[in-house]
Write a structure and sequence with these properties.
The complex is a heterodimer of chains A (255) and B (215).
Chain A: E1 20-29, E2 36-46, E3 51-55, H1 62-69, E4 77-82, E5 85-86, H2 92-101, E6 103-106, H3 118-128, H4 133-146, H5 162-173, E7 180-184, H6 192-207, E8 211-215, H7 219-222, E9 227-232, E10 235-241
Helix pairs in contact in A: 3-4, 3-5, 5-6
Chain B: H1 3-11, H2 18-29, H3 37-49, E1 53-58, E2 64-68, H4 70-81, H5 93-101, H6 109-139, H7 145-180, H8 183-186
Antiparallel strand pairs in B: 1-2
Helix pairs in contact in B: 2-3, 6-7
The chains are: A alpha/beta (255), B mainly alpha (215).
Pfam families (chain B): PadR (PF03551), Vir_act_alpha_C (PF10400)
Biased composition (Low complexity) (chain B): 193-215
Protein name (chain B): PadR family transcriptional regulator
Chain lengths: 255, 215
């Protein structure tokens, strides 16, 4: 189809600073006979505008990678650099500030606070960061509006579908200046069509400049990513790069 | 793939000439199965021989038009009603390759699986990108909506097909890991979703020493 023009995928310029940089990341649980190597030296950079999917069998280290990237756990060795700050050497105060200002999480079970409306949930990280309630609410409403969720602002979690809650969770993850979103099986509790709408939102936020890591075991959702990283036994075994999809149209598509 | 029935379906909408049929076929299927004009005319000649289409005059530019006949219409409707034949599964190169790789000397079947998984997921990334574009085109209400919807369905079929392949690869890999375990560990019951949720089938932590089962 002649007008199936794709927005050209522009690879990040080498000079662009990654939002997240993992270098030689190692996480070992236990010691001696019960020692488990959850991660064995991972190098991974995620640039603004990029969505990276991490796939692998259970036990391959996907979730460990995400908790380390978000500063929820400490690596045995190696570095986690978020927006230029090494969180493995940061003070607890710096780390807490970074988690409030730079890093957003999206979980399988949404984790919205039931007693708060969608707008209040989205405003919460800003308020915790010391922004005035009025300003926090304004930026929450702006985030919801920008993501096409404005009509949900005053609903409580139990008044929303799972897909709506998950989209609000994405808004909460990226409210304010935050541009790193770490999503752990965000579609796990959703039916396939709703899961797709959540992925479409995540994709569009990354297209708008955020950086995202998506942990999933669903190939169909991983396929929304720019890169797919395969983990096995705590190591990266392989990685895909997205090609120019238009090559499909010239009959090169077949396998 | 049935070019015959594809052409009949387009002709049911009114008389058309050869290269027009080719363009419309490709527009609906996003050039996934490109046709050449020669194939179109050969197929039209056979359809005419079988009485399913008939030459229907010329358009103002002098193109020879073809029209569907009553028996062509009957054949087309039978095609829509009849499920696609599944009695003879098409030969699948990947299945054959894995079947041959099991126990083959000097072949790391896990590497074969990963190389294919890479290619399969990458194809899915391409299809998904095109799908996002098709969805955007439909939502923006552009004029070619009917073709975009047809193209979307074709793309989603490709996505589901590649997804099935990726899941089967995951499943095969964890199946092989399981079978390579000593018998006493293998006796552990499989997780309940092992068949539908392939990656969950390998229990954590995974065995380090993977060997292709031999013999």
């Amino acid at each position: 189809m002649s007008d199936q023009q794709s927005a050209p995928h522009i690879p990040p310029a080498p000079s662009a600073r990654p939002v997240l940089q993992l270098t030689q990341l190692v996480r070992t649980h236990g010691s001696g006979a019960t020692e488990v190597h959850a991660l064995r030296g991972i190098d991974l950079s995620v640039y603004p505008g990029e969505l990276v999917a991490v796939m692998g069998p259970s036990g391959s280290g996907k979730s460990t990678l995400l908790t380390l990237a978000g500063g929820l756990d400490t690596p045995t060795s190696g570095h986690v650099i978020v927006e230029g700050t090494d969180i493995t050497t940061a003070s607890r105060r710096q780390l807490a500030a970074l988690r409030r200002r730079s890093i957003g999480y999206v979980f399988q079970d949404y984790n919205l606070i039931p007693a708060l409306t969608a707008a209040e949930n989205v405003a919460l990280p800003r308020e915790l960061d010391g922004v005035s309630a009025r300003k926090a609410r304004a930026s929450a409403l702006a985030a919801l509006e920008e993501m096409g969720l404005g009509q949900l602002a005053d609903r409580f979690p139990d008044e929303m579908s799972g897909g709506q809650q998950q989209r609000v969770a994405i808004a909460r993850a990226l409210v304010g200046d935050r541009r790193l979103v770490l999503a752990d099986e965000p579609t796990g509790a959703l039916d396939s069509e709703t899961g797709e709408s959540v992925l479409a939102l995540l994709r569009s936020r990354c297209d708008a400049g955020a950086a995202g890591i998506l942990v999933t075991h669903e190939p169909r959702f991983a396929a929304w990513a720019d890169r797919v990283v395969f983990l096995r036994d705590g190591s990266v075994v392989d990685e895909t790069l997205r090609s120019q999809a238009d090559s499909l149209l010239s009959g090169q598509a077949g396998r | 793939m049935s070019i015959r029935h594809g052409l009949l379906a387009l002709l049911e909408r009114g008389p058309r000439y050869g290269s027009q049929l080719r363009t419309e076929f490709e527009s609906r299927t996003g050039s996934t199965w490109p046709l050449n004009v020669g194939q179109v005319y050969t197929t039209l000649a056979r359809l005419e021989r079988d009485g399913l289409v008939a030459p229907g005059g010329e358009d103002s530019a002098g193109h020879t038009l073809y029209a569907i006949t009553d028996s062509g219409r009957a054949e087309l409707h039978q095609w829509y009603e009849r499920p696609v034949d599944r009695t003879n599964p098409p030969r699948d190169e990947l299945s054959i390759k894995l079947a041959m790789a099991v126990g083959a000397p000097g072949v790391d079947i896990r590497a074969v699986i990963q190389a294919q998984r890479h290619a399969t997921i990458r194809a899915m990334q391409d299809y998904t990108r095109l799908k996002a574009q098709a969805l955007a085109a439909i939502e923006s209400g552009r004029s070619r909506e009917r073709d975009d919807v047809a193209w979307l369905l074709v793309l989603e079929q490709l996505i589901f097909q590649t997804e099935a392949e990726a899941r089967w690869l995951d499943h095969s890999e964890s199946r092989l890991v399981r079978l390579s375990l000593p018998a006493d560990r293998r006796a552990e019951p499989e997780p309940p979703q092992a068949d539908t949720d392939a990656p969950a089938a390998a229990a954590a932590p995974e065995p380090r020493a993977f060997r292709t089962p031999r013999g």
